[in-house]
Amino acid sequence: MVQKLSKKDIAFMQQLPVCRLATASEECEPIVRPVWSVFDGLNIYIASDPDTPKLEQIEANPEVSLVFDDYDKNNWSTIKGIRVQGEASIMWNGKEYRYAHDLLKEKYPEYQSEAGGWKEGDIPIIKITATSFTKWESGKWTK
């Protein structure tokens, strides 16, 4: 069973503009990249350019990891992070696709512009369903 996140944890993940997504290549090489995500408290959604290596990697191996973290460079006692282990799937259309697209546009105004916008079916959205969370705050780890 997946550990429950507190309201504070959910708000932390929702407010961060960027997190990091890790996938694995066919040679099992881990690859980490920044992504712009939305978290609705249950699933994490990420828009992606089509035909990118991360999509191929997810299709070959849907197990992924994300890290949401933040700190104040002047006060390291505020370090906090949440690592998400999860199963990824790729959506191109449908009711959940439109829901995720609306969430992404709400969080990122760039997706509302003509240059940054897209229509259903043009851009894939990656859906990540968490299988576990690991949290740390001020150097203390919890599972």
Write the layout of secondary structure elements.
Blueprint lengths: L6 H9 L3 E6 L5 E6 L1 E3 L3 E5 L5 H8 L2 E10 L2 E17 L3 H13 L17 E13 L2 E3 L1
Antiparallel strand pairs: 1-2, 1-5, 3-4, 4-7, 5-6, 6-7, 7-8
Explain what you see:
The protein has 143 residues and is of the alpha+beta class. It has a single domain, classed as Pnp Oxidase, Chain A (Roll). The chain has three helices and eight strands. It has helices at 7-15, 53-60, 95-107, and strands at 19-24, 30-35, 37-39, 43-47, 63-72, 75-91, 125-137, 140-142. Strands 1, 2, 3, 4, 5, 6, 7 and 8 form an eight-stranded antiparallel beta sheet that branches. The longest helix is centred in the last third of the chain and has 13 residues, at 95-107. The chain is globular, with a radius of gyration of 15 Å. The chain starts with 6 loop residues before the first helix and ends with a strand. The mean pLDDT is 91.
